[in-house]
């Protein structure tokens, strides 16, 4: 490095960093898929107020923590949580090694293609499927399995890769927040190790900024090589009242902005918006049966009932997908 | 922001960032408290090789993860782990509200100033003391208690604030690694919430990059306000085989460099250095009875026995504090 470059990086870099993050909300124009309206305005108003040096609502960069639910907030969750579709594909892939599944529910129905009967066992059946397909291998092996699936499997309705089923307006929002000094985290009920292999590429969120549900792992030596084995035991469920716990455990400070879409996110939004100083809480409301799906109070997946009432009571922003977004997915031009 | 500044930040910022992190190991001169020798050389050699674009050992910035133990690696741990000294101070502070402690061990002995008898109960006594003093309040209240203690309590031998008992050469190492694109994490057997209130100021490591042992917390509404209550229940012990588990849980990718000082760090070093590509593992060996403390294979605190053998077998760097550091603490000019 030349002396000039060294001087430049020492004196100019801080200056440019400052310009990049400080003066006022930069790049609201990146929110191109957001229609003008109260939802977009409330976002821009908040971001401008916390990032404007000298503003009474100014928040120092290290405290600009924003947390996002994943299923139904950053990508779709219909007709089933994508991770469950992954698990079902794994059951099929693993079936040749498990002849006993032919007579054992929920696997028997699954292998006949009868998902409805398989899942009729409710949560215990789902836990059984997830545990069976997500444990018994090392963390490195599971990572490889997820990477392979996520780059090849197709959504049953759109025929698209699952990573194409992410909401373009939310990608723009992540970019906008980061351009204004925010650190963005995922806080999802989904499996932490199911998300981490692809969130950096798709959302720009690195593995260390992903919080999620997890199974236990165990360190052991295998032929002299250390491995982490995935055990068929729940470690942590990052949903509902678990979300603030997961946030505290992983992030260690309270976010100033939270984004969700269901009752599973309610406590995360409550915890975030109960902190002192400026706070921002937002619900994505699925109102677009044509471009995506429409569901709320009665849905078994992504139910938004108590949350919708809490949003009204607390003055949180509610995004009407149909009205507020001019585009849902990037592939819908 | 002016047009010029906008253009400058768009086009020049990436350039300066690149210059700041990419070309070759920058700032080895910041390792001023390190004597010339194999330990310092091995660090610089590793950092140069992974950060030099085009080098066969080049590692992209997002994968430059470095993990540091805390007690005995970044700050001292004698005559007792500092967190235990904090807990003992808490027992004294809480005693007026607990008249029953006068007849109850280990509290009775502690309150008489007889630490040796109090701790003679071994781990159960220690767990009892820590649980009693670290739970029963909200996370916000505990944070405040730690902040107050860490800015006022003095070390029994040096009379210094505990945050002055950090190793100057290790602070320089943290700075050097970050200047070369590394993200630095703490991975400590100590309490995660005991460290987070001060690690950012002292080490430049933000709360979200601290991994440690923890108690369970519970989300609840208290007079309409959401709080996280600290429960008297162990959630996770981030020590020995727990360290790779904690790393996987919090960081989600394998570090390429690990720094420890005791057998409690052995699995973390094994896990780190067993990964593919360039890896760096280092043990701090306490050899300086004059400026700090000298202890290793026989010590009950910070025992370094198996780790010393593993380091020799595996070719890990071992820092001889007395020989390799020209200064231990900043207050020793």
Characteristics:
333 residues, Rossmann fold, 8-stranded mixed β-sheet, 13 helices
Task: Report on the architecture of this protein.
Two copies of one chain form a homodimer. Chain A is of the alpha/beta class. Chain A has two domains: about 20-80 and about 160-325, HAD superfamily/HAD-like (Rossmann fold); about 80-150, no CATH class. In chain A, about 40% of the residues lie in helices and about 15% in strands. Chain A has helices at about 5-20, 40-50, 80-95, 105-110, 115-120, 120-135, 140-150, 170-180, 190-205, 240-250, 265-275, 305-315, 320-325, and strands at about 65-70, 185-190, 210-220, 225-235, 255-260, 280-285, 295, 315-320. In chain A, strand 6 and strand 7 form a beta hairpin. In chain A, helix 7 packs across helix 9. Chain A is globular. At the A-B interface, helix 1, helix 9, strand 3, strand 4 and helix 10 of A face helix 1, helix 9, strand 3, strand 4 and helix 10 of B.
């Amino acid at each position: 490095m030349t002396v000039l470059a060294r001087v430049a990086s020492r004196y100019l870099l801080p200056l440019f960093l400052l310009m990049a993050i400080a003066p006022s909300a930069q790049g609201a124009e990146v929110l191109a898929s957001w229609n003008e309206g109260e939802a977009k305005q409330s976002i821009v108003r908040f971001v401008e107020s916390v990032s404007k040096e000298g503003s009474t609502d100014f928040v120092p960069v290290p405290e600009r923590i924003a947390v996002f639910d994943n299923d139904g907030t950053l990508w779709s969750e219909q007709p089933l949580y994508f991770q469950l579709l992954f698990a079902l594909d794994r059951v099929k892939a693993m079936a040749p090694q498990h002849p006993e599944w032919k007579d054992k529910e929920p696997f028997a129905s699954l292998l006949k293609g009868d998902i409805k009967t398989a899942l009729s066992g409710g949560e215990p059946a789902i836990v059984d499927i997830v545990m069976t397909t997500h444990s018994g291998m090392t963390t490195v092996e599971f990572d490889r399995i997820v990477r392979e699936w996520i780059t090849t499997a197709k959504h049953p309705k759109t025929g698209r890769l699952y990573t194409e089923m992410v909401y373009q307006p939310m990608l723009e929002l992540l970019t906008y927040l980061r351009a204004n000094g925010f650190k963005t985290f995922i806080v999802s009920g989904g499996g932490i190790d199911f998300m981490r292999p692809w969130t950096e590429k798709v959302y720009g969120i690195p593995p260390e900024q992903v919080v999620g549900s997890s199974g236990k792992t165990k360190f052991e030596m295998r032929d002299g090589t250390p491995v982490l084995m995935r055990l068929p035991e729940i470690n942590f469920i990052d949903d509902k009242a678990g979300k603030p716990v997961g946030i505290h455990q992983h992030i260690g400070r309270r976010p100033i902005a939270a984004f969700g879409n269901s009752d599973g996110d309610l406590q995360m939004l409550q915890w975030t918006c109960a902190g002192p100083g400026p706070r921002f809480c937002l619900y994505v409301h699925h109102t677009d049966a044509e471009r995506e799906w429409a569901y709320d109070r009665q849905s078994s997946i992504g139910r938004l009932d108590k949350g919708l009432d809490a949003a009204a009571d607390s003055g949180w922003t509610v995004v009407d997908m149909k009205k507020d977004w001019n585009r849902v997915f990037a592939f819908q031009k």
